[in-house]
Write a structure and sequence with these properties.
By secondary structure, the protein is an alpha+beta fold. The protein is 40% helix and 22% strand.
Length: 442
């Protein structure tokens, strides 16, 4: 059974079988220079721009079952290993105008500034060697949630019209992954999520091990802070009811500034094409309290310093068991590399950011197809191990470009494609005139 055949049933709706269109769309993601309907239709054999547009924007196939199956297949491939991790991160998509669902002026990581863009939160499963996205959530800013007409126009489902932070979307995906039986040893997040105390507490309470990057301003205690409700200083007035710490806290940057040379251990994280990735790691057990909890939580502080660039320091908190080795903590902290690779591959090789999607359905359809393409790449890489250890996503895409059937090129083929487009446009114009004529008052 071919890869697409495994997923064919998900694209059959209301008596229509869209499995063939789904296969051609996947081929277009690999073959075309840009994942736009016209460009893909121009290179894919039997590709049709209108078919692709309908498949993504209007066809009623549901993306949720496809994403669930992607998760099951990804877990079979990458889950259940000592290095299996679910890495959460967001990606932004610069956009013009205000019609694209979720678009707003907000922080755009791709541009490094506030700009007009869409933002989505992704979950990527990795085993420390391979990776593939397994879930996504499109973030809707407040201005979208409060604009009912705008949500109606984009066909945003009613259940999605509730303001949820990115960390809440991330938590949803972690819970969904566990509910589907996905096997990962820990959850990794960057500082945008690590700075959210409620998010880290929720992971901890759910029994999830996490490694969360935090900012240099993260406040910690060396020892349990001695939380207590102060005794009243006077018989008059209200009695104190809020807890206070008996000792002062400090930032992680202040704590690390006190480290001596002996506090750092050189660790090899992994072998890469640039040689061994070697870093200096320091570690402390620290306590964290945000002023809201009944008690403080004592976690690992993992500090990573680049060899030869001592000013480049990364701070992470982890609730891994207290006996976890320094080497293991360092390797867990370093796994965030794979989500960055996943975004690079998805955008560079599979057209993640090239879509022509305005509405909710269209955005989720396109991203789901990209996730399916990424799963195919992950399976091909794994199937060719260890013989082709250096096989990359780009290698696989280039092989597909050479081996998949494509439309003939040349002058005659170009003229034929132009004539086909003109025929479709002429038919659409005639149809509009007929509609206007029939709707006009007599």
């Amino acid at each position: 059974m071919s890869f697409v055949d495994r997923y064919g049933s998900f694209f059959r709706t209301r008596g229509h079988d869209n499995a063939g269109v789904a296969q051609r769309y996947l081929q277009g993601l690999a073959q075309a220079a840009a994942a736009t309907f016209a460009v893909m239709a121009a290179v894919v054999e039997d590709g049709c721009e209108q078919q692709f547009q309908h498949f993504i924007s209007n066809s009623p196939w549901r993306h949720e079952p496809v994403v669930e199956q992607i998760g099951r297949d990804a877990d079979r491939l990458l889950g259940g290993k000592p290095g299996s991790a679910l890495i959460i991160d967001e990606s932004s998509f610069p956009k013009q105008g205000d019609r694209s669902v979720g678009v707003a002026r907000q922080w755009c990581g791709r541009l490094g500034k506030v700009d007009n863009c869409q933002v989505a939160v992704f979950a990527v499963l990795t085993d420390g060697s391979h990776h593939t996205p397994v879930n996504m959530r499109l973030y809707l800013p407040h201005r979208w949630i409060e604009d009912r007409a705008r949500c109606d126009l984009a066909e945003v489902p009613v259940q999605a019209r509730t303001l949820r932070s990115k960390s809440e979307l991330a938590l949803e995906m972690v819970h969904a992954a566990r509910a589907r039986g996905m096997r990962f040893a820990w959850v990794g997040v960057d500082g945008g999520y690590g700075k959210e105390p409620a998010f880290l507490r929720a992971l901890d309470d759910a029994g999830e091990v996490f490694v969360a990057d935090v900012h240099s301003t993260q406040r910690v205690w060396r020892e349990p802070p001695g939380l207590h409700v102060p005794a009243p200083t006077s018989a008059r007035g209200r009695r104190p009811c809020r807890q206070r710490a008996a000792t002062d806290d400090m930032t992680v940057a202040q704590l690390v500034a006190e480290f001596r040379a002996a506090d750092w251990t050189r660790c090899i994280l992994r072998d890469s094409t640039r040689g061994r990735l070697t870093v200096d790691i320091a570690h402390r057990r620290v306590c964290v309290w945000d002023g809201e909890e009944v008690g403080a939580r004592c976690w690992h502080l993992v500090v990573r310093r680049e060899v030869g660039a001592t000013s480049k320091i990364k701070y992470s908190l982890s609730n891994a068991p207290a006996e976890t080795s320094l080497q293991s903590l360092a390797e867990m902290q370093g796994q965030r590399y794979w989500v960055e690779r996943a975004f690079e591959d998805a955008k560079g090789e599979c057209g993640l950011a090239d879509y022509q999607a305005l509405g909710w359905r269209a955005w989720h359809h396109h991203v789901t197809m990209v996730m399916l393409a990424m799963l195919f790449i992950a399976e091909q890489r794994a199937a060719n191990q260890p013989g082709l250890a250096l096989l990359s996503p780009r290698d696989i895409v280039e092989v597909l470009k050479e081996t998949l059937p494509s439309k003939p090129q040349g002058k005659e083929a170009l003229v034929a494609r132009i004539n086909q487009r003109h025929a479709r446009r002429r038919s659409a114009i005639i149809s509009r005139f007929r509609s206007q004529t029939s709707a006009a008052p007599s």
